[in-house]
């Protein structure tokens, strides 16, 4: 992506904007892949004919609780760093 | 010098295609890893039919899971934006 971008004329605003949006979308996709791996391990036992509703709830909650955890840890880590300084 | 719009459209289309391919490759590679782990416990001399069946179901569930998680994440992003 980044070498692709450096080939573009720097004054082409429309194209620059397009690439920025596409990069953002790629980041979101990358994040979904990561969540899917983490939550798959947490929520899926033996693969069956369909996802049952308990598994669906587990997957949905897993995403939200992972984000909550990430926010909590980031905040607390920042506090710890502040106290040390 | 700005490019003409045909050339620009071509580049945009190419970029979109490349991103879509990269995305599919990522899904394929992660799905292979996860389903191998779930379905092939003791690798034998070939994939037996129960392993193959498990792999098929695993693939379908992995993609279901991807869709579900993508929706949950999208909703979370929306909620976070509203709370700002």
UniProtKB/TrEMBL annotation, chain A:
Keywords: Chaperone, Disulfide bond, Membrane, Mitochondrion, Mitochondrion inner membrane, Protein transport, Translocation, Transport. It is found in: Mitochondrion inner membrane. GO terms for cellular component: mitochondrial inner membrane. Residues 17-79 form the Tim10-like domain. Pfam families: zf-Tim10_DDP. Transmembrane segments: none annotated. It is a peripheral membrane protein. GO terms for biological process: protein transport. The keyword Coiled coil does not apply. Its main location: mitochondrion. Heterohexamer. The twin CX3C motif contains 4 conserved Cys residues that form 2 disulfide bonds in the mitochondrial intermembrane space. Mitochondrial intermembrane chaperone that participates in the import and insertion of some multi-pass transmembrane proteins into the mitochondrial inner membrane. Also required for the transfer of beta-barrel precursors from the TOM complex to the sorting and assembly machinery (SAM complex) of the outer membrane. Acts as a chaperone-like protein that protects the hydrophobic precursors from aggregation and guide them through the mitochondrial intermembrane space. Belongs to the small Tim family. This is Mitochondrial import inner membrane translocase subunit.
UniProtKB/TrEMBL annotation, chain B:
One of its GO terms (biological process) is protein insertion into mitochondrial inner membrane. It is a peripheral membrane protein. The keyword Transport applies. GO terms for molecular function: metal ion binding. The keyword Cytoplasm does not apply. Keywords: Chaperone, Disulfide bond, Membrane, Metal-binding, Mitochondrion, Mitochondrion inner membrane, Protein transport, Translocation, Transport, Zinc. Belongs to the small Tim family. GO terms for cellular component: mitochondrial inner membrane; mitochondrial intermembrane space chaperone complex. Pfam families: zf-Tim10_DDP (PF02953). It comes from the Eukaryota. Residues 15-74 form the Tim10-like domain. Mitochondrial intermembrane chaperone that participates in the import and insertion of some multi-pass transmembrane proteins into the mitochondrial inner membrane. Also required for the transfer of beta-barrel precursors from the TOM complex to the sorting and assembly machinery (SAM complex) of the outer membrane. Acts as a chaperone-like protein that protects the hydrophobic precursors from aggregation and guide them through the mitochondrial intermembrane space. SUPFAM superfamilies: Tim10-like (SSF144122). This is Mitochondrial import inner membrane translocase subunit. Heterohexamer. The twin CX3C motif contains 4 conserved Cys residues that form 2 disulfide bonds in the mitochondrial intermembrane space. It is found in: Mitochondrion inner membrane.
